[in-house]
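Morning, I've got a small favour to ask if you have a moment. It would help a lot if you went through both lines with me. I owe you a coffee for this, so here goes:
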Amino acid sequence: MTTVKVQEQYVTVNSLKLRYLDWGTPGRPAMVCLHGHTGNAHIWDEFAEAMSPYYHVYALDQRGHGGSQWAADGYDRERFVEDLARFLDVLGIFKVTLAGLSMGGWNSLLYAAGYPGRVERVVLVDIGPDFGTASRVRETRPPTPLEFNSFEEAFAGARQGDPWASEQRLRRDVEARTRRREDGKWVWKADPRLFVGALGDTEPESVARYWRCMETITCPILEVRGKESEAVSDDMLQRMAKA
């Protein structure tokens, strides 16, 4: 078991105050972990602790998420990539391994394609250049409620969308993603604008752009997916390997 203790840190990039969780000691290779849409850095807790003997691990709350500042200039994909680029520059990280879950994987692909000399390898977690059958599944889901009368109500809603996580782990996740408002209601820490509308990344232009990234990235890419993944099929894995 590693003795590295996580530290909560803040940095200002592109006029936004971003929170990140820091595991490790200077001198080890850098790994930056990027969570998924409306998530937060704590989704990486177990992974970051396991990797900390080998890497200096940073888990970033991306703009509008977790403990990071909400963004007046919006959440276009380019803004996330610009934040990542500036984050690495400010911390003096010139070679990095990127681990990206879902939306974080898309951000990793775009950064790796745009800054090829800066990325040693990429880990994609349950995401590919397009969203597979997950796009159709998400379209049938009702809108995510923005407030709850109790924590248990928020937890029950999260359980409907995640039948796989253990009781303990899902509670930790919901605790990290929610806060209690002054009126007693429980709300998401993420900017409410992130819950409205579909992700533009499922549009044909965005999908084509991610496939172009696969064709131009020269560093190794590891894909990690769940057995019941709706996002990454066997066919998509073959197409990614060919690209």
